[in-house]
Batch of 4 targets.
Target 1
Amino acid sequence: MISCEKAAIICNKKQYNEATFYEKLQLIFHLLICKTCAKFSKENAKLTSLCKKAPLCCLPEKEKVEMKKELQEKI
Amino acid sequence: MAEHQLHPETWVDQYADYLFNYAVARISDAEIAKDLVQETFFAGLKSAANYKGTAAERTWLIAILKRKVIDHYRKINSNKGKAEVRMNYSSHTDADGDWLEEQIADPLSTHENSSIENEELGLAIQECISKLPKKQSLVFKMKTIQGMETEDICKELGINPSNLWVMIHRARTALMDCLNKNWF
């Protein structure tokens, strides 16, 4: 049986489709017996769907550095 | 005594994404939106002396950005004709009965609210992300918003994968907490 920490990591990987088949199997069995992780897993999936639904975009780090530099010059 | 103070050196880290999201939702051109955010920071710096400290830093910056967005539309619409509002009753007159009744919005539909709601959701998420520790928010953004591969992020930041997943885990837990408080 896997620990809750490990289950949480797998659950997070699953949100990005990076969990292997074996890991997913382990997770399913863990969720069957652990209510806390089951709740976490549910909320985690909700967060993923919210992030997909919202038009999220952000500036690339490179442009931020440039922006910071220009701003720094004016301070 | 002012309640709030300006810290221009933290602006880019704290507000750049938030302002950018706000601008992109209204301009829908990333390049122009980026320029407007940059201009907002400059304008904020220039008029920092006028900042009375009654509003939070972010509210104040958003107010400046709002003006910048309006100015932008004014500029591209400077020809009088372009600014004119033209109304057609119906764009396709041979459509089945062009009654005006058919063209008003369906009062029961919630569809047109969803894009507004989604934009607010985006800003709420962005606000929560900005409260995370710098490294966590960076990893979370790279992974979730930019959709980068785990391997690439690890290489760029010089961390190992298990390190990355721990950071993602902390970021996600904090975000869930924050959204539960502010969104639901």
Target 2
Amino acid sequence: MYKIALLGQPNSGKSTLFNALTGSHQHVGNWPGKTVERCEGSYKYQGEAISVVDLPGSYSLTADSEEEKITRDFITQGDADLILVMADSSQLSRSLYMLADFSKLNAPATLILNMEDVAKAQGKQVNSALLEKRLGIPVISFVAADLKRYDKLKSVIHSALSSPPRLKVEKCGDGQELSWIAEILSGVVNESQKPYTLGKFDRLATGRISGKIIACAAMLLAFACSMIVAMPLMGIGGMIPQIFTPLLQNAMDALNVHSFLAGIISVLIPNTIYFAFSMSGFVFGVNFVFAFLEDIGYIARVAYVFDGIMSKLGVQGKSICPMIMGFGCTIGGAAGARVIDNYGQRLLTIALTWAVPCAAIWSVIPVLAAYFFGFGSIFVVLGILAYMMLMIFVISKVFGKRLSPAQTRTGLIMELPPYHKPHWKSILYIAWIRAIDIFIRALKTIFLISLIVYLLTFSLSGNVENSLLYHIGTFIEPVTKFFGMGWQTFMAFIASAFAKEAVLGVLNAVFAGQGSLIAGTFEAKSFGVDSSILAAVMPTVISKAEALAFMFAVSFNVPCVMALSTTYRETHSLKWTLRLALFFTGGALILSCIIYHIAEILL
Amino acid sequence: MMLSKAIEGQTYILINIGSDPHFMRRAGSMGLVPNTEIRVIRNQTKMPILLFARDTLIAVNQKDAAEIEVEANV
């Protein structure tokens, strides 16, 4: 099987090309022993399979960072039959830098001059035939986001593979890259020079304060749009348990199926499908909106205005996008972290996003806080916000050194690409592939974890006291008490890792005796919870100190199963997903412990 | 003079790109080497400087810009 590799600077359109070329035939993993992502895929051309490796994004091949070392070694070891070197047609004198560096390595290559449409719109004509003659390798003018052009590209690649073309020109000397480019390009680009001016919108979008306001507004809008895009899919998903759970329940009753199995079929399976549906619907929405913002060139402006603040946390300015998204939904945050082009910083961004309490938490906590503190609940909410800031700081300190070593922090200098019209087809295509992919994977993960939760909460009589979770909870209560939680709140704490809405459902089952633990856990999301009795009963059983400790513990516990599953999917690292999960669970317990013991004294 | 003190709308020639080899390589890969003509698009306090060079809009941190020597291009 032939193997080709993609090489290009960030913003060269490399990942768009990779996605469009390989579609759903992708394997994403890590380079052995490195926190650098390895994307490999394949496509078929005239019955022949061709494998494609997306070399890690870097600016040059000087081996300054782990990414550059990997890329350099890959090329020099001759692991690929052909390297596709990408450059941006609209700024050739700069973007051929990678080719200049590459010329030192002498490997078979084809040059892709991407963004031909942008160059044309700027009045630039590139004579690719002249460039081809001069370089001695195929040169193709291209638009990576235009799916119609791929047949031609594939045929160029195919003929290049049968007789590997190598650069004819002299190797570029060290430090001579830009003059080497100037020589290669003489007479190639024909342009009508217009002095660059910052557009009206761009003036606002890059303003110190206005830029931040626009970025935050854009993220809120992005969240709203993702929801609108996702709504139909979520709606369909939501109907699954509402329609099938009662139907299946009746059928199970009629057939006299044992209640354990009946529960799995009528409650667990429909809810698993629903969760996977709403999750992939939302992932689709987020990917769609983020791909749009990236395609038109706006995300780079967000990166610019937030670089100062975010670089202190060890991440890029762009990382603010997933984090703001996290207020709505952690799944969206984790999926949106794809805009970060560096794997380690992406992982760190996801970890930071986990610390942001999601909308489900914001819907549960004020309700609970009001039971116990009345108007004082506003201070609980403010306290959670303050702790969120602290948590973000702590995470950046704990994981920052590993995931974002100082020399790979890219904020120091960056490019702001010109705005251009969105390529709807490729945006939709990419969002769709990701949604399908996550749906299949999520079904497995969610079913597995649901099954564990089901086993823990199952009780033959429907009574909470017959469940495994109750026995465990009451058995280890002396321990959990130390952390500030009695068996009831501890059960709800465990359930909150399953779905945040389950907190009210479980508390309702425990305190108000309304519904079984299973219904409280699984159906709180699809059927809602009537918590009127809870309001009256809970404060008589639980102390204020315990309630406060519990609310903080839930807010900063691991995110829900679906967010975990998305994180695993996006990081494809079980090790890091578990490491973060442990960190958050441990952190939540310690936090709860501290708050409980302090509140005991004060309240 | 230093790039951090540059005035919006003016063109300059890069003279010296500081002393950190890592930064110099990154700047080079973005097309910023000595003798390059640049135009300063935006220079706000506490924000990276926006400059236009080789058909590219590039943002450079104030801290790094304070190390880059430029000369007014007349």
Target 3
Amino acid sequence: MDTSAFRAWVHEAARLIADNAENLTRLDAAIGDGDHGVNLRRGFQAADEMLDKAEAETPGAVLQTVGRALISKTGGASGPLYGTGFRQAGKALADVTEVDVAKLGSALEAAFNGIQQLGAAHEGDKTMLDALGPAVTAYQVAAEGGADIAGATRAAAEAAERGLAETVPMLARKGRASYLGERTIGHEDPGAASTVLLMRALATVTAGEAP
Amino acid sequence: MTEGIGLVGIVLISHSSALAEGAAELVQQISGGATVVPAGGTEDGGLGTSTDKIEAAIEDADAGSGVVLIPDLGSAVLSARSVLADLAGETTARLVDAPFVEGAVAAAVAAGSGADLDAVIAAAEEARDAAKF
């Protein structure tokens, strides 16, 4: 993946999030404060616009620009969390201009670790990590099995979807939802749902299918 | 900041601009000259937190003796952590796990009496165990 592919990922992610903002907000209204879709749409729109103006010349610089935009423009907890994820992924890529399958795997892992550290959540707490964790693992298993970037990111997107489904019976232990206790059981986690969109956008771009 | 020189500053971070400003107004009355700065809401005035607002508030509250940050919930904590991570090594600001109103009051009283940063933080944290009546 080169710099333009990373830009395409962000663009596709912004499009998917805008298209699904109402669904994300509906999920969040059930167990949180009902702003996830609106916030994330604003954050990714800002990131996409900032990238249009920025001279980010490496994949790492693209991800760091996105991270900064998400942190400062999103307005909800997802901003610092995803923003930190993108920034840590960008740092992991350093100055590399062409990202191979192994390098992207280490960037995804860095994103997971950054988000985990900032939010102090664990898998099973009904958060975005419940989609991202399985995605990173599936990516690495696929990569070690010889998959190319398109194959590994497709495996990651599918695992994120399964992870999202598994959040339904979970009891939320983090964020606004944790105040609702048992009422959170029976709903998909909105953060896991948006992670699915990010992974799906990545798989779409690496498959060469982005519009 | 001419007032509050040498005193610990306080930043109140809330999802709601009205809540942060109201709490700051309440607390300022008893802060003995220590600076209390609200950082509430998003940049466009909605509910949420803004790292830019938090960063600016830290600068305004810093009178040279450190700054305590008191968040309300969720993204207020995460946004503050992000700002502190960015300022690493360049700020004396510290994030405190304390009740928003009681913690702010306790911190302001301590700061106004000239307590140092650690003592102000301890005062805010102790507010969690103080009975209201």
Target 4
Amino acid sequence: MRAEVKEYNYDWMMGSITEAAAKLPAGSQKEADLSFRYIPYFRYALGALLETGPPGVQFLKMLSHYYKNITTAHDQGKKIVATTFCSTPLIFYAMGLVPLTFEVLTAVGAMVWKRGMFDYMDYGCEVGMPETSCSAQRGSLGAYLAGLGETIDFIVCDSPGVCDTNATAFAFAAEYLDKPFFQLNYPSTIGDERSQAYHVEDFKAMIGFLEKQTGKKFSYDRLESYLKEMEAQDAITADLEDMLLLVPTPIPPIYTLMIYAGRFCFAGHPEYTRMLEKLRNEAQKRMKAGVPGLKAGVERLRVLMCYIDHYTVDMNFYNYLEERGIANTGSILTRNFRDNNPYCQSLEGSCYGVDTSSPEAMLETVAQMNARLPMVRSIRGPYDQHGMWLDECLALARLYNADCIIYNGTSGCRNTWGMVKPFARDIEKQGIPVHIMYDDAFDDRVESWEASKERLDEFFTVRGLL
Amino acid sequence: MQVFKDVAARIQPQPLLDWKAQGKPVVGYTCSYLPAEIFHAVGILPLRLRGIETDGMDIGDVYFGPFICSFPKCLLQLVGKGMYKFIDGAIITPGCDSMRRLDECWRKAGEDYEGVLPGFYYYFDVPHKSEDHGMDWFIEEIEYLIAEVEGYFGVEVTDEKLRASIAEYNKGRRMLEAVESMRADINPVVSGADVFSATIAGSVMPRNEFTEQMAAWLEALEEKPPLDNVQKRVMLIGSISDDLELIKLIESQSGALVVSENLCFGVRGEGRPVDETGDPIKALADHYLGESICPRMYGKYKQRLALLKQKIEKARVDGVIMQNIRFCDLHGAENALFERDLEALGIPCLRVEREYGPMIDKGRLKLRINAFLERIGRRRARQVAG
Amino acid sequence: MSIVAGCDVGSLTSKAVIMRNNKIIGSFILKSKPRPEDSADAAINGALEAAGLSIGDIACCVGTGYGREKMAFADAAVSEISCHGKGARWLLPSARTVIDIGGQDCKAMKLDPDGHVERFAANDKCASGTGRFLEVMAKVLGLDISELGPLSGKSKSPITLASTCTVWAQADVIKYLNSGESIENIGAGINIAMAKRVAILANSVKPENDVFMTGGVAKNRGVVSTLEKLLGVRIKKARKADPQMAGAIGAAIMAHETISSKESWTKGMEFN
């Protein structure tokens, strides 16, 4: 690792960057211009966020608070739980903990720095993580393994049964850092009584673990207030999903990122509600004016990302979509499978409702919710099982009028790389073009963004889409 | 012993062909979590599927993506080539992500190649935890599997039959345990390659025949003089391996002997008997899930390390060779932790990455193994001098 | 005093040295031939000629490298990892960590206070992080491999390369060339990509001072200086002899130790 990277803690650095960025609109134009000169590799990303207006500013504030919570957790007498993006932070907030999600932290660094998270990723390999392990965790985890972050108190992951690479990274971290570890484990089926009962048992065990680690009793009253806040958030998200159905859609490509990044950081937290409200306001204004979300003002194509987006330097992927006039109808990260969403009818039995009437009902709700988080729902079990990845993507592509489906992941994703070829073949049989990106969403060294871009262009041209 | 060597070297060895010639069914399985006794109990041969004898990856690569372990790719390659057309059933287990996707890839290959998808095709959902509800889930999975087997093959899996099968399997397990003690002896009489042949044979040949052969081999071993020139006692651990060439490569180096291993085709789950007294399903679940020491059981690293230390001590291991197949997340990450903790105890470790299948990278592996054995040699020389 | 020899037949080059009294009295290096036995013969004959000796004058010869078992004249074969450690120690007595970048291999070794290899890590399979990587890249840029190193000093904004695979990196370089990126920035990017691969390996053995580099890539300043930054240590240079000869020198020293000491540390090694 370069000596300069070791000078400051990673979480502190990102916290400072996002804090400064969030303050930018409050200053003069001259100050802003000067600041932009100093951030050649973050210029577009920051510009794009600020251009969204109030939601972008709120998003940056939210991110900086997220970091601040981490860097000040121990001063405030709180414990830090390291967890994954496919596990809801809501339950940890209800427990008075500070959740730290490796994947979110990796994505932020990847977008902000020219060399992305390479130093930390490579550090992960130096201490023994395979270089083929998932970059999404290895990036920020590398910083924590190197001791360049606030101390993690314990680890909870919910990827066993869903993603080996993810679960292995957490298990490795627990051993390497010598921290207590808990796993939620997912069977290959969803929606049936047997697997639901399993989820609930798992959650009970997890609460037991959290109580043991914190020495505090779990509060269902607190859980209730978070769930109620989440109800409000889900209602707004459903409105945004409705607007995503429109052709052209008033939702800019970057909104989808803001929606899910916010949920990964602050589900059930009022801060996230504020951002969602602002997103909805802006989108509604455009909808009423009949203006598309794309800056160019013309929607030339609609894509469905069947897995995740691309997060390297300066949000170049979102910039690319804007440049080409491509609307992003979302990825597996965007959808939360609440029963008020437009896609619930197309995917019968896939969604869940919220019930706060009793502690048991709340526990059931949280278990149901977590079972439908990204990866946990879509890619558990066989992809062609009823209602799973294949059915889901076909239904969403049709509902949102997507012209094509694009797979983008990481080279660490054993789970999807094990099935994406037959999956793509099945989708193509239904008349929807599919493009598989052989890159890594967090690491440009696997395939440079320039090469990925060229391959996307080639796909759109050859298939007559653009 | 010759029978074991022949069986271990081929996908379709003679005892298997003889079994088929009698019109008896065979069910293939992919992972050490499957209680083979269930099939043995009703006259079905449980066959651990192997990927040896592949000569390319042209079929495997059509269905699997590039960042996937070569073991399931080799299996699929053989499936596509029709090498497994003789099996009546197949059971896929989520041992790891690469392996569980064999489920879809095999089914899809079945759409393209006629007759390669067996009539009985089943997904056996093994949880990643063995406590409370994890164990309950696994027991239910066994019960569902039994019901499916009964329905498809028109058989009845009774507790009596299961108990008898457990007893038969335990005979082999106890004999393997006896062989393990011989390997651990200061003057071992048996090579690692021979033991590995036997454990592989135990998972692919008719079990009763295996038990008989084991008994004969054990008798022969009692008479055998110790092996010459055993100077470097090696343990082999890591990703799935049923390739004798790797052990042979190590043992072809002067003075080196593989005296212990922790591989899922080797003496890992074998060697410890299943309880023969209580409810047979519960006993099988306790053994196959409860005692599992595979890294897919997250959060149990310390138990696995303790087991390795125990084996190292018992077999007087001088050094541990840790291999992982490229893209094997589970063993790749865990090997690094083992290396850290064992080196700290003064046990030399070598970590290597390889591909499953024909040993294309033999030269590369040999160089590393050579250098490692030289290190062990110096250490021993110093110990002798000191 | 006995005369000893070491012969190192590698994938790209073959080397031999003749030593007397711990000093090199003859050496030879050539591009490896298709058959390792031919390379070995040519190397040893070249070195003998330089020393003005014949094979009968050699008391003991150790062979190393990929062709180590194909040398009819050698008394023993020792892995190149052990030999490189030994050779590096001779070239720089204070060396505790040795990074050797060969044609198709990259190794990091940690030596114990006596100069024996205590830990090592080697790259797996792929050509990235090896001399071949630089060779391929230099060819794409139309440069001699020796011209690649100095480019780092001239670049202001090095490019980021797909560094996990040589083939992909090559495609990237071609793309950057076509888009008009400067040779300096591309060259510097190549050196950085190379250094990063090597740094992961080196750090995995936890380097201790002094760190010493052997193999042809030690001559590339761009890679060495980036590596120094990444490892946070100075990388020492050898003055006694060409660092590319380290394997052969180590082999010769082992030959010497074999005949001069009963309690040789080479005991337990594989001798013919």
